[in-house]
Write a structure and sequence with these properties.
The complex is a heterodimer of chains A (226) and B (342).
Chain A lengths: L2 E9 L5 E9 L4 E5 L6 H8 L7 E6 L2 E2 L3 H4 L3 E4 L11 H11 L4 H10 L15 H12 L6 E4 L8 H16 L3 E5 L3 H7 L2 E6 L2 E6 L1 H6 L1 H6 L2
Parallel strand pairs in A: 3-8, 3-9, 6-7, 7-8
Antiparallel strand pairs in A: 1-2, 1-4, 4-5, 9-10
Helix pairs in contact in A: 3-4
Chain B lengths: L1 H17 L2 H25 L3 E6 L6 H9 L4 E6 L2 H9 L5 E5 L7 E4 L6 H18 L17 H4 L1 H26 L2 H5 L6 H27 L6 H24 L4 H20 L5 H6 L4 H15 L7 H23 L5
Parallel strand pairs in B: 1-2, 1-3
Antiparallel strand pairs in B: 3-4
Helix pairs in contact in B: 1-9, 2-7, 2-9, 7-9, 7-10, 7-11, 7-13, 9-10, 10-13, 10-14, 11-13, 13-14
The chains are: A alpha/beta (226), B alpha/beta (342).
Chain lengths: 226, 342
């Protein structure tokens, strides 16, 4: 078992947040988390990435408690919806900064630049890049330390068709490389093409957890996209 | 640990260069220096007191002849009427004007810009000395007026400028930079690496201290004035920059974005600056100012720079600033651990 979540919860006010939720994730799964805006998807992901401190519950990743942040950060790579990079600086600077803080040799930066087709943009300031390219840099940065678990919050939001296809290709190649991936999405075709398991959150509660086939035949899917 | 702090500090300094913060820090001392130099220029010319006399006024011959005799001290400027004298006074072309006193017409009244200024005291003193010499009376009981605070206006206002720089960086620049990192989720990105929260906080403190010390150093280099007790002075600059950098980091954590950080910064900046900087001219402010941390920096700086004071006599202020800095650092750490407003 790679990820064990037991009664994790976060409440912002009476109608928002995440009710106590439990589930397990096995290594190599590609999980799509689906739900309306405010259903608690991003809250769940941000808690797993240590961006938000949960009100209660426990999370174990590869047997390590989420509270042990220094150890957990090497296990989890989080890619938020909006790329959070140092805009003033180049792609290379951003990757090298995080490589230094992760104590990773710069050779890995070169490999990431090559793997993500970022070599032509290495000296370009991040602020001059399109959102799709920024998202590629963001994913590359998350993969610097080669974490076994990747968490992506709406990775294709606001991207054009070509960039969306590029992100799908990256996700598939990372999944093929044996990584466990959890992502949120509003796009049914994205969920259908990528996910090996689907979880549905509604008003902060987990109301469905199963295979894509079962989900697309269920009433939940119809209600969600009615 | 040190490696991560240095990497973060280098990144912070690079941001400070890119967003022009560093240039702002260097521009302020330059602006102060130029302004003070302009003040000094007019003061040198004002060494000779320029007195305006109204042409139609019937002055005692003894008075005009005494003023003319004291040519090295005073200079007469004849004006056609009082309105012209007032205009010249406002334009700083004369220092004072003698005209008939409305209450006692047989005597004269001296019109000046500010009654409480040191320059007015000097004019009155000079007239008193002239009158006594003309009447052949004994000299004044007081032979000289010695100031506790030595030096020209540049040196006398130095503690105020230093306090202004420290508070500007501590309360306005640092909180805005921290709020920006929070707003753009850059801090959370950095916390996705194995760095410890304390390392990030130390890097931010060092950034604040480097900015403050650079600005103060430039102010000293431009003005070419150094303190007599250099080590004592540096001890206060270092602890002051530590305290107000920690204060600023803490304020940054209380804000969700840059706009609120700037507002909160100004709310803290003015009440810390004005009572301390103006405590010399108001009894009430002198009573209030000691309750502010800024006064615990301002007062020792004033003592060291203007009265050759020593650290040994101001250990309470030093410890106070250090402990306050530690408290603010700890509060920032707690807020960071809770991911407050991130």
């Amino acid at each position: 078992m790679q990820l064990e979540i037991h009664n994790i919860a976060k409440r912002y006010d009476q109608n928002r947040g995440l009710a106590p939720t439990s589930f397990n994730v096995v290594k190599g799964e590609l999980i799509a988390i689906v739900g309306h805006n405010g259903a608690g998807k991003s809250t769940l992901l941000k808690m797993l990435a240590s961006w938000i401190v949960p009100d209660g519950g426990t999370v174990m990743i590869d047997g390590i408690d989420l509270k042990n942040r220094a150890a957990i950060v090497r296990k989890v790579g989080f890619i938020p919806e909006d790329p959070n990079l140092f805009d003033f600086f180049s792609v290379e600077y951003n990757l090298k900064l995080f490589a230094m803080l992760n104590q990773i040799p710069f050779l890995r930066v070169e490999a990431i630049l090559d793997e993500f087709n970022l070599l032509p943009f290495r000296k370009t300031k991040v602020q001059a890049l399109s959102k799709g390219l920024k998202q590629r840099v963001n994913i590359g940065r998350a993969l610097l330390s080669d974490p076994p678990l990747l968490i992506l919050d709406e990775p294709t939001s606001g991207l054009d068709f070509e960039m969306t296809k590029e992100i799908y290709r990256l996700l598939n190649s990372m999944h093929d490389a044996g990584k466990t991936i959890i992502f949120t999405s509003h796009r049914p075709e994205e969920i259908k093409n990528l996910a090996t398991r689907i979880m549905v959150l509604h008003q902060g509660s987990l109301i469905f957890d199963g295979l894509p086939g079962a989900y697309f035949q269920s009433e939940i899917h119809e209600k969600l996209y009615a | 640990m040190m490696r991560n702090i240095l990497v973060l500090l280098f990144n912070d300094l690079s941001i400070a260069f890119k967003n022009k913060t560093f240039f702002l820090i260097l521009f302020i001392p330059l602006f102060i220096f130029v302004s003070l130099n302009l003040i000094d220029g007019s003061k040198a010319e004002a060494d000779k007191i320029k007195i305006g006399l109204v042409q139609d006024e019937a002055y005692a011959p003894k008075l005009t002849s005494s003023i003319k005799a004291a040519g090295k001290l005073m200079e007469i400027t004849w004006v056609q009427h009082e309105a012209e004298g007032v205009r010249l006074l406002k334009e700083h072309k004369i220092d004072g004007m003698l005209s008939k006193d409305e209450k006692v017409p047989s005597r004269l009244a001296l019109l000046v810009l500010k009654r409480e200024s040191l320059h007015t005291i000097a004019i009155v003193q000079s007239f008193s000395a002239l009158q006594k010499a003309a009447e052949g009376r004994d000299p004044d009981w007081i032979a000289a007026v010695n100031s506790l605070h030595e030096g020209g206006i540049q040196r006398q206002t130095l503690p105020t400028w230093i306090l202004m720089l420290v508070l500007l960086i501590g309360f306005i620049i640092l909180p805005a930079q921290i709020a920006e990192e929070k707003e753009k989720k850059l801090l959370l990105a950095l916390l996705q690496t194995p760095i410890h929260e304390v390392q990030w906080l130390i890097a931010k403190l060092l950034l604040g201290m480097i900015l403050i010390i650079s600005a103060i150093l430039l102010l000293h280099l431009l003005g070419q004035f150094g303190p007599v007790n250099f080590l004592d002075y540096m001890a206060f600059i270092v602890v002051g920059s530590f305290c107000f950098s920690a204060y600023g980091v803490c304020l940054g954590f209380l804000c969700r974005n840059q706009a609120s950080a700037r507002t909160l910064g100004v709310i803290f900046y003015l009440p810390h600056l004005l009572p301390s900087a103006m405590s010399d001219v108001s009894e009430k402010l002198t009573a209030i100012a000691p309750f502010l941390p800024s006064y615990q920096l301002y007062q020792p700086l004033q003592a060291i720079l203007l009265e050759d004071g020593k650290l040994a006599n101001m250990s309470f202020d030093w410890i106070y600033l250090f402990l306050l800095g530690l408290l603010m650092f700890y509060l920032s750490y707690l807020l960071m651990k809770k991911r407050w407003l991130m």
